[in-house]
């Protein structure tokens, strides 16, 4: 599949299709969008916008990172741009946060508590947890996707873990 993606060095044309991107990374991209915008409908919009941008910019993909990292960067930037708009800041989310995880795995109360705690983190720490644990990206991939130094990613990830640990400990004691 796309893990063995090749690039025609002479033409500088990437050899992947939209179908391959959706099949290989679609669920991860949509979930990332959902965790950013906290609304299923807006996540669908962000997902479609991100895929459209990736397709339009496919010829600028240089292969310096994995295709997944490149597409996830586009999705994260798309979501961040949506969150910055005045329109988004003034609107209500269509679903309460606890409804975001209406999957069979979400019935596990411990998992639900962890996900709720993740949603409560400030955005810059939440994205580290999402990309590292929920998307399975490595620190260097996150750094590349977010245009950050690896040290910054590591520090934010540690702080996010500390915040989560404190929050979950308080919940268990309550």
Short description:
With 174 residues, the protein is mainly alpha-helical. 67% of the residues lie in helices and 2% in strands.
Describe the overall structure.
With 174 residues, the chain is mostly helical. Helices cover 67% and strands 2% of the residues. It is built from 8 helices and 2 strands; from the N terminus they run E-E-H-H-H-H-H-H-H-H. A two-stranded antiparallel sheet has the order 1-2. Helix 6 packs across helix 8 (150-173). The termini are far apart. Residues 1-13 and 94-106 have low confidence and may be disordered.
Sequence-ordered SSE layout with sheet pairings:
Blueprint: E1 7-8, E2 13-14, H1 18-37, H2 40-56, H3 67-84, H4 86-90, H5 109-120, H6 123-134, H7 139-146, H8 150-173
Antiparallel strand pairs: 1-2
Helix pairs in contact: 1-2, 1-3, 1-6, 2-3, 3-7, 6-8, 7-8
Q: Helix amount, in percent? A: 55-70%
Shape: globular
Order of helices and strands: EEHHHHHHHH
How much β-strand is present in the residues? under 5%
Structural class: mainly alpha
How many strands appear in the DSSP assignment? 2
Strand order of the biggest β-sheet: 1-2
Average pLDDT, to the nearest integer? 79
Q: Helix tally?
A: 8
Please give the largest β-sheet. 2 strands, antiparallel
Oligomer classification: single chain
Radius of gyration: 17 Å
Which stretches of 5+ consecutive residues score pLDDT under 50? Answer: 1-13, 94-106
Q: How widely separated are the two ends?
A: 48 Å
């Amino acid at each position: 599949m796309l893990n063995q993606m090749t690039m025609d060095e002479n033409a500088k044309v990437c050899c992947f299709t939209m179908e391959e991107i959706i099949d290989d990374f679609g669920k991860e991209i949509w979930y990332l969008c959902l965790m950013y915008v906290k609304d299923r409908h807006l996540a669908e919009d962000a997902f479609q916008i991100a895929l459209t941008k990736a397709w339009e910019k496919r010829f600028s993909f240089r292969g310096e990172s994995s295709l997944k990292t490149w597409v996830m960067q586009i999705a994260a930037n798309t979501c961040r741009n949506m969150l910055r708009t005045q329109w988004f800041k003034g609107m209500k989310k269509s679903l309460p946060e606890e409804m975001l995880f209406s999957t069979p795995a979400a019935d596990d109360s411990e998992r639900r508590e962890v996900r709720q705690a993740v949603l409560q983190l400030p955005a810059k720490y939440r994205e580290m947890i999402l990309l590292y644990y929920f998307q399975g990206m490595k620190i260097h991939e996150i750094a590349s996707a977010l245009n950050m130094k690896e040290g910054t990613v590591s520090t934010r990830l540690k702080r996010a873990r500390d915040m989560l640990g404190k929050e979950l400990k308080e919940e268990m004691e309550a």
